[in-house]
């Protein structure tokens, strides 16, 4: 029996989840995009049902339709990225002889400068969680670790205690593509983690860290003790931002950008920061180029006799 496009899409998503261990964010985005593709095919080309019927011209027509509907260039570019990845999967698994999306062209998207916080706002945010109860200790540790390491929120919530060496001051982070990297922990982050782990284990038992380092708190009518999801961290952050009156546009990724911005502004080597962030390519660091230029100019003006 010939496999349908929908069945191939399900196999692709299962591959991303199980073999590639894609993040929940990527899985949601690709699931939505493939659902849009299937809906478009049912409407515009109902005769195309089997995976063998997919062609480059058909996918180009889909992308053109998306672009012509007023969709933002960045959204069209994400659609193209999804189709290229799906097409590569179809070719690699020999569902098709070649990747039908290989020649798709994405619109050029201007890269925005990242939103980041001044150190004064970082200090304000890190001191926002109050109290020494489980919730206060957890929220304080969450923010300290995010800013201390620059890790992605998905990497943060995936942490288990065995990945964290509080004595050595380092965490083993599993990033995109299952690649591991070492993330140094600053002293405030270590102190916050030690306090939180004591409170967490007191509430949920000494083995709680095997279920996840950061867990939901015990409350009336709720046992707690479940691993936090990235949306939980966003909700926790949004609560403290509202209390402080800081921009609601601030997200966990803002702390990651702030981590990189503050390091580069202080003269850190861009390749070292790339490693700390877990970026595979230096090209990804181009959004921070203006900071490295400023740092180089400061060194030049301080050291060159004809500056």
Number of helices: 12
Helix-and-strand structural type: mainly alpha
Q: Characterize the largest beta sheet: strand count, sense, and whether it forms a barrel.
A: 3 strands, antiparallel
Termini separation: 74 Å
The value of Rg in angstroms is 23 Å
Quick check: average pLDDT? 88
Strand order of the largest sheet: 1-2-3
Q: Which CATH class of the largest domain is shown?
A: Mainly Alpha
CATH superfamily heading of the largest domain: Intergrase catalytic core
Estimate percent helicity: 40-55%
Written account of the structure:
This protein is mainly alpha-helical. The protein folds into two domains: 5-92; 119-252, Intergrase catalytic core (hpI Integrase, Chain A), CATH 1.10.443. Helix content is 54%, strand content 4%. It has twelve helices and three strands, in the order αααααααβββααααα. It has helices at residues 5-18, 24-44, 56-68, 73-92, 119-126, 134-149, 153-157, 187-204, 230-244, 252-265, 270-277, 289-303; strands at residues 164-165, 170-174, 180-184. Strands 1-2-3 form a three-stranded antiparallel beta sheet, with no helix packed on it. Helix 6 (134-149) packs across helix 10 (252-265). It is globular, with a radius of gyration of 23 Å.
């Amino acid at each position: 029996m010939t496999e349908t496009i929908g069945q191939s899409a399900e196999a692709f998503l299962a591959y991303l989840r199980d073999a590639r261990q894609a993040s929940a964010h990527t899985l949601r985005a690709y699931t939505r995009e493939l659902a849009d593709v299937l809906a478009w095919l049912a409407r515009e080309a109902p005769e195309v049902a089997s995976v063998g019927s997919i062609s480059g011209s058909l996918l180009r027509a889909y992308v053109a339709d998306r672009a012509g509907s007023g969709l933002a260039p960045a959204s069209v570019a994400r659609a193209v990225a999804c189709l290229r990845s799906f097409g590569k999967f179809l070719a690699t698994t020999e569902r098709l002889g070649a990747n039908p999306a290989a020649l798709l062209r994405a619109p050029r998207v201007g890269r925005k400068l990242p939103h980041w916080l001044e150190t004064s706002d970082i200090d304000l945010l890190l001191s926002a969680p109050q109290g020494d109860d489980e919730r206060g200790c957890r929220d304080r540790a969450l923010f300290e670790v995010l800013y201390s390491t620059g890790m992605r929120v998905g990497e943060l919530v995936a942490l288990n205690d065995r990945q964290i060496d509080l004595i050595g001051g380092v965490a083993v982070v599993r990033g995109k593509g299952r690649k591991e990297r070492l993330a140094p922990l600053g002293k405030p982050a270590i102190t916050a983690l030690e306090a939180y782990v004591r409170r967490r284990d007191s509430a949920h038992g000494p083995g709680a860290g095997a279920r996840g380092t950061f867990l939901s708190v015990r409350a009336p009518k709720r046992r707690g003790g479940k691993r936090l999801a990235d949306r939980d961290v966003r909700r926790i952050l949004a609560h403290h931002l509202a209390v402080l009156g800081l921009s609601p546009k601030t997200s966990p990724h803002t702390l990651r950008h702030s981590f990189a911005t503050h390091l580069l502004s202080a003269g850190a080597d861009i390749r070292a920061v790339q490693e700390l962030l877990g970026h595979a390519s230096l090209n990804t660091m181009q959004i921070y180029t203006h900071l490295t230029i400023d740092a180089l100019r400061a060194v030049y003006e301080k050291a060159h006799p004809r500056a």
